[in-house]
TrEMBL record, chain A:
InterPro entries: YjeF_N_dom, YjeF_N_dom_sf, YJEFN_prot_NAXE-like. It catalyses: (6R)-NADHX = (6S)-NADHX; (6R)-NADPHX = (6S)-NADPHX. (6S)-NADPHX binds at residues 66-70, 137-143, 166. It holds the Pfam family YjeF_N. This is NAD(P)H-hydrate epimerase. Binds 1 potassium ion per subunit. GO terms for cellular component: mitochondrion. Signal peptide: none annotated. GO terms for molecular function: metal ion binding; NAD(P)HX epimerase activity; nucleotide binding. It comes from Euplotes crassus. The lineage of its organism: Eukaryota, Sar, Alveolata, Ciliophora, Intramacronucleata. It comes from the Eukaryota. Its cofactor is K(+). PROSITE patterns: YJEF_N. K(+) binds at residues 67, 133, 169.
From TrEMBL, chain B:
Residues 13-225 form the YjeF N-terminal domain. This is NAD(P)H-hydrate epimerase. SUPFAM superfamilies: YjeF N-terminal domain-like (SSF64153). Keywords: Isomerase, Metal-binding, NAD, NADP, Nucleotide-binding, Potassium.
Length: 235, 234
């Protein structure tokens, strides 16, 4: 029997976020920490399932928004789990000074996580085992502007498996890969899968065990069961 | 394992907290979430190891008036998500926005808050009591209503899990008020001096402590497995 899971649209995701923060007063610190932890656990698990050992080199690509914040949290946890994240930040020329973002960067620097200033021309499998894609999340729409276009092209040209946080960067949340960019090997959907994930055949994880039942019920979200201590579930 | 483990003093723990803030830029809301989550994980794991037949353990969470209470509120929420049967007793609630928010988050997922402890309660009422009354900064005399609450918990015969420091113990001097010794202790970041010689089950929640703090204070790193946020040292 095939279980039919829920796929949410951009508007529903925004409404859920608003409820979590405005009504239930979850702080962005709480939510981002739990989201990033889910992402790290998912990638750790995915790698272990493939027979992996510690010390995997993960190129973490950090965008300017919340997706980037999630990636910074995930990088920190991956380091604690024994893997080797390397962070590359990509942002608009005029970089907004967001406290949260800067704090998360500091927390990574404290763990001696390497930050690189430039992406190599070719992102090779000798250099990296995974790319963790944290450029754009569910609020992305339209076309991919510089400097993100170049980064996304390089990611697509690479043979290194990509794990995308929430939504593959550059995809439209509802319509999918309208910009013709990469399809990742793995997606960690946060809270629930997005509409664009329907038909995705790669490894699909859900993170978001922290979303309260009243919200799950209100939006009629059908999810796989979380088990034990896991902050992720696999579709 | 515990014999050679570094136990930190009040002064050292205060220094670590300051470093978490000034050097690590950890926000309080963030740190409490990690601490409470780690404590919930440790208790979940402990129950799985010792009472695997009890699938939905009943836990009475006692929330104190400070940050230790905040840790307990976070732990309560995550334990509920893990499928536990949680009840909260929160007798003195300060007007602090963060703690009010954590309270709301527990209420939202239908965790009952009781107004008072029952006259008599024992191990048929609850599988565990999660003690989040006082943390490592507690000093002096135990005032009401906590004196009575602590006495009652100690007399209940229910397994007590203390978060960070057994409530009313002093960080360095230990059980100066002669209250209960918990069955399980979940120390945050590092064990405190007062838990030297503690012979119960001992977990450390601290998979958020960066290496420079470990080195600066000579901390011992517990054995963390997989994605676990806790390590067992006794």
């Amino acid at each position: 029997m095939e279980t039919s899971y829920s796929y949410l649209g951009a508007k529903e995701m925004k409404d859920i976020d608003d409820e979590l923060m405005a009504d239930l007063r979850y702080s962005v610190y709480q939510l981002m920490e739990l989201a990033g932890l889910s992402v790290a656990q998912s990638l750790y698990h995915y790698d272990k399932e493939l027979g992996g050992s510690d010390g995997k080199k993960v190129l973490v690509i950090v965008g300017p928004g919340n997706n980037g914040g999630d990636a910074l949290v995930a990088a920190r946890h991956l380091k604690f789990f024994g893997h080797s994240p390397v962070v590359y930040r990509v942002y608009y020329p005029k970089r907004p000074k967001k406290d949260l973002y800067e704090e998360l960067v500091t927390q990574c620097e404290n763990l001696e996580i390497e930050f690189i200033d430039e992406l190599p021309e070719d992102i090779t499998t000798e250099a990296y085992d995974y790319i963790l894609d944290g450029i754009f999340g569910f609020s992305f729409s339209g076309s991919i502007r510089a400097p993100f276009d170049d980064v996304i092209t390089k990611m697509g040209a690479s043979d290194v498996p990509i794990a995308s946080i929430d939504v593959p960067s550059g995809w439209n949340v509802d319509e999918g890969n309208v910009n013709g960019t990469f399809t990742p090997s793995m997606v960690i959907s946060l809270t629930a899968p997005k509409k664009c994930m329907e038909g995705f055949t790669g490894a699909h994880y859900i993170g978001g065990r922290f979303v309260p039942k009243p919200i799950i019920d209100k939006y009629s979200i059908t999810l796989p069961e979380y088990s034990g201590l896991d902050q992720f579930a696999r579709l | 394992m515990e014999a050679n483990f570094k136990h930190v003093s009040f002064e050292e723990m205060s220094g670590i907290d300051e470093d978490y803030d000034k050097e690590c830029k950890y926000q309080v809301s963030q740190l409490i979430e990690l601490e409470g989550f780690s404590a919930a994980q440790a208790l979940y794991y402990h129950n799985l190891e010792t009472n695997p037949d009890v699938k939905e353990p009943k836990v009475l969470v006692i929330v104190g008036p400070g940050i230790n209470g905040g840790d307990a509120l976070v732990a309560a929420r995550h334990l509920k998500f893990f499928g536990y049967d949680i009840t909260i007793f929160y007798p003195k609630r300060p007007k602090k926005e963060m703690l009010e928010n954590l309270t709301l988050q527990c209420e939202n997922i239908s965790i009952p808050f009781i107004e008072s402890l029952p006259e008599e309660f024992g191990s048929d009422s609850y599988d565990f009591i999660l003690d989040g009354i006082f943390g490592f900064t507690f000093k002096g005399e135990i005032r009401s209503p906590f004196k009575e609450i602590i006495d009652q918990i100690g007399a209940s015969g229910i397994k007590i899990v203390s978060v960070d420091v057994p409530s009313s113990w002093q960080c360095d001097e230990g059980n100066v008020n002669s209250t209960y010794t918990p069955d399980i202790l979940i120390s945050l970041t590092a064990p405190k001096k007062c838990s030297e010689g503690f012979s119960g089950v001992h977990y450390i929640a601290g998979r958020f402590t960066p290496k420079f703090i470990v080195d600066k204070y000579g901390l011992s790193v517990p054995p963390y497995e997989g994605c676990n946020q806790f390590g067992k040292i006794n």
